[in-house]
Each structure stands twice: as structure tokens, then as C-alpha cells.
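quick one: adenosine-5'-triphosphate bound model?
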Amino acid sequence: MGIVVAIVNQKGGVGKTTTAVNLGAALAALEKRTLVIDLDPQANATSGTGFPKRGIPSMYGVLVEGHDIHTVVQDAGLPTFRLAPSSIDLVGADLELSEIDGREGRLRVALEIARDEYDFILIDCPPSLGLLTVNALTAADVVVVPLQAEYYALEGVSQLVDTVDRVRETLNPELEIGGIILTMFDERVNLSRQVADEIRNFFAERVFETVIPRNVRLAEAPSFGKPILMYDVKSRGSEAYIQLAQEFTRRLEVV
Amino acid sequence: MGIVVAIVNQKGGVGKTTTAVNLGAALAALEKRTLVIDLDPQANATSGTGFPKRGIPSMYGVLVEGHDIHTVVQDAGLPTFRLAPSSIDLVGADLELSEIDGREGRLRVALEIARDEYDFILIDCPPSLGLLTVNALTAADVVVVPLQAEYYALEGVSQLVDTVDRVRETLNPELEIGGIILTMFDERVNLSRQVADEIRNFFAERVFETVIPRNVRLAEAPSFGKPILMYDVKSRGSEAYIQLAQEFTRRLEVV
Ligand SMILES: Nc1ncnc2c1ncn2[C@@H]1O[C@H](COP(=O)(O)OP(=O)(O)OP(=O)(O)O)[C@@H](O)[C@H]1O
Ligand SMILES: Nc1ncnc2c1ncn2[C@@H]1O[C@H](COP(=O)(O)OP(=O)(O)OP(=O)(O)O)[C@@H](O)[C@H]1O
Ligand SMILES: [Mg+2]
Ligand SMILES: [Mg+2]
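yep, here:
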């Protein structure tokens, strides 16, 4: 039975997509059957794994028109790595979904026929707490929060935790916080260390031990449409996501 | 007659708020009467200028309940610098606004009684192309696009330009692109230089000459609730935003 993980943070630019794509690829390298679902109209996870943002079946069809999710899933370059692409059409999904009954549960229903085929299903969310993110939270078993060690990102965490609590009370009683991942961490920068300390004080063992360093190779890889593992496996960024994948399976996989 | 500037980019974390707050303060330091409007439910521009995200009148009242904008404007630390705060309530605004007639024009109508009191009105937008951003685009004379010199941010620009074109055709015929500001630029990083070259090739003179360097003092200042000018005026970040303000008045102020 696959574990569904929503990768969420309404703060923009904190490494949600970079985590979805690279944690996904690293889990697949550990021979876990992994599906990344791109639920962001920007479709960055889609282009970051080499797929176009137009012209192929996408999650828009699944969410808004009720298509079978199997009709959109693509092979993403490793034997057990797959992607369900986004498209520009999703820009209007928030408004279009708001008029449909059971609008928060569309993704959960769509995943019922696919969950058993994967060990991990990672959902990349847009930087907002709108209906697309709420769909991900309603479908998920756990929430993972990438967090840049900076002030504005720190500020937003309490609003995110409130939203998770609200979804747990009204839409998905099983939902829990799987962990916080510190991203773009630069140990030479005081601010990074100070914010990291504050996060660890507050969230304690819910913070993943693996910290993702700032590493330019992670920012270069998407322009080649490849996860870091396939672009530069020896880079610090790649090593960090492989280490994170190992910690991830230890913490989240209930045998 | 004040110039209304929407600071927009649906890509997250590219420096929209940092630009709104610091360009705003620098314009005020040049003795321009400046209002920053925080239209992002994250309320980062609000806390970045030292105001709380709850408990004070906010743009939620203005947009959703039709309050007079003068009832929310606060003094922001320099003689001609003011802020119209956001609040957490704005999270629901996209859905609440969608049920109101004339939903795209709420901000434009609200600003009619205040435009003449300012030389520049800067609107900080959330990382999305939803109703809050469309309200800003409908109220604005020009759009300014902060852009991080990285691949995912570069990819999103064409979607943004399409949205601006659509708003110009249906809601705001005067709207034009005022310029693109390169942010978090690191001249030592190849990727930064490559993306900057691509942006200049495509947008030519619409790219501001002033480039904002990556400077950790810009990321530290918000934790003190101060624009960089008031936190560390000698920093490279502060100098860059003062230079940008000078270029801004040259390019946008029609005398
Ligand atoms: N550890 C890292 N080191 C260096 N660059 C990184 C790292 N992680 C992400 N980046 C880069 O930082 C930018 C922001 O990351 P990313 O797009 O993954 O964040 P996001 O949270 O998905 O953004 P959005 O809120 O727009 O969806 C991207 O250009 C990405 O390539
Ligand atoms: N030139 C810079 N140098 C260093 N850090 C910067 C710079 N500009 C912004 N930052 C930091 O980078 C992060 C992202 O910037 P900011 O929050 O302004 O972007 P944004 O586009 O407003 O994000 P969002 O999409 O969430 O609204 C913040 O932590 C900010 O302090
Ligand atoms: Mg993303
Ligand atoms: Mg912002």
C-alpha cells in the first residue's frame, strides 16, 4: 500500500519542486516504486523531469474532468520512477474546482485505483493554500514541509500547521506531519544557522536529520530536464537527496 | 497622479516582497510619496516593515468588505513611506471574491480615492495568477517583474506575459510591462550569468540596468521588521535598491 506524501509550503521558492523531483528519483534509485504528481500550474516538476507543459495528458484532466490517472502517468527515466504531469490549464483549476461537489476530495478519489502500484507517491504543490493544495492534503497520509532557513519562510510555518490541522479535522483524519526538511542551507551564513536552531527547538525530532545544502548543481539540473542523480550524481546536492531518501524510508515506511 | 505598479511573478521566492519593501523605502528616501500595498495572504511585506499580521485593519476589509483604503494605511518609518497591510484573512479572498460582481476590479475602485496622494503605489502580490494578482493587474499602470536568474523562474516568464496580455485585452487597456528586475544575482555563478543573458536577449531594454546582488543583509532585515535602508544602509543590497529607485523614477515618472 503506497504512502501518499504531500510536499507543501505556501511560501514560495523554498525547494518544494526540487525536493519532489530529486527525492522521487532517489527513492526510485533505492528501488522503491515512486510516482511524482505535479499539482502546480507552473509545471516545474514536469519540465524538471524532461516533459513538456503542453500537449500531453495532464493532471488537469484527472482533477477537473475525472479522467483515469493511469492515462496521464509517464515513465521518468529510472525503472521505478514515474511522473503525472501538470499543465498550464491547471491555472484555472482553483476556480473551476470551486464549483464542483466534493471539490476537496477529487485527488483522493483519483488515487484510489493507483495507490497499491507504488511504494511512495509524492505530490508537488503550488505556493498557496488554495484548492489544489487542499486536494493534496486530503489525499495524503503525511505532509512533508521543505523549509528554507530564512525569516519569511520561518514565519509562514505556523499558518501551514494551522491549515494541516483544519484539513485533519474536516477532510482527512489520518493526515500527520511527516517532517520538515531544511533546504538551501549554507552553514557559513549566520541567518541559516539561527533559523535552523529555531526550527529544531520548535519541531524537535520532526525535523529530518538530513539537511539539503545550497548547491548550484541543483539549480542547473532542471535546465537539462533531469533530476540531480542523472545530471551530476557526485554533487553535494545529489548525495544529500540520496541520504534524505534513505532517512525517508526509515522514518515513513511502516513495514 | 500616482503611478500604480504591480510587482508580480507567479514563481515563488524570486524577491517580490523584498523588492516591494526596499524599492518602496528607497523611493521614500528620494522624497517620493510611496504606498506599499500588501496583497499576499502570507503578509510578508507587512511583517517586513514591522507590522503584525493580525489585529489591525487590513486589505481584506478593503477588497472583500469594501472599506475605505484610508482606514488601513499605516506610517512605515520614513516621512513619505506608508503601508496598507495584509492579513491571514486574505487566504480565503480568492474564493470569497469569486462570488462578488466586478470581482477583478475591487482594488482599482478602492484606489480611485487615494491615487492622487502618492507618487508611487507598489502592490506586492502572492506567487500565483489568481484573483488577488488579477486585481493588482487591473488596478495597475505598469507591471514590474522581479526575476531570479535561475531556470524555473525563466520558464515562467512567458506564462506571466500571456496573463498580462489577457488582462490588458479584457480588464485594463492601459497596462504595460514596466520592466524586469534581476534579483539575487551572483556574478560568480555561471547559471546566473547565462539566464541573465537570455533575459536580456529576449526583453532587451525592458530589463532594468540595476541588478540586485545576492546579499544576506537583505534576508536578515525582515527579522528586524525594517527595510534594508534602515537596517544596514551601507550594504550592497541597500545600495542596489537605492540605485534601482533612481532608475525607476527616471524610467517611469512621466514629468
Ligand atoms: N539546495 C539548493 N541549492 C541551490 N539551489 C536550489 C536548491 N534547491 C532549490 N534550488 C533552486 O532554487 C529555486 C527555488 O526552488 P524550487 O523551485 O524547487 O522551490 P519551490 O518551493 O518549488 O518554488 P515555488 O514556490 O515557485 O513552487 C529554483 O531555481 C531551484 O533550482
Ligand atoms: N537579493 C537578495 N539576496 C539575498 N536574499 C534575498 C534577496 N532577495 C530576497 N532574498 C531572500 O530570499 C527569500 C525570497 O525572497 P522574497 O520572499 O522577497 O520573494 P517573494 O517572491 O516575495 O516570495 P513569495 O513568492 O513567497 O511571495 C527571502 O527569504 C528573502 O529574504
Ligand atoms: Mg515548485
Ligand atoms: Mg512575497
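The CA atoms of residues 103 and 197 of chain A lie 39 Å apart.
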